[in-house]
Amino acid sequence: MTFFSKSLGALIASTLLAAGAHADVDQAVAKQIKAKLSASNPKASIGEVRESRVEGLYEVDTQGGNVLFVSKDGNHFIAGDLFQLAPQGVVNLSEQRRGRSRAQVMESQPEDEMIVFSPKGETKAHVYVFTDVDCGYCRKLHNDVPELNRRGIEVRYLAFPRAGINSAGYRKIATAWCADDPNQTLTDLKNRKNVPIEVCKNNPVAAQYKLGNEAIDVRGTPTIILEDGTVVPGYIPPDTLAKALGI
Question: Are strands 67-71 and 77-78 parallel, antiparallel or unpaired?
Answer without folding.
Answer: antiparallel
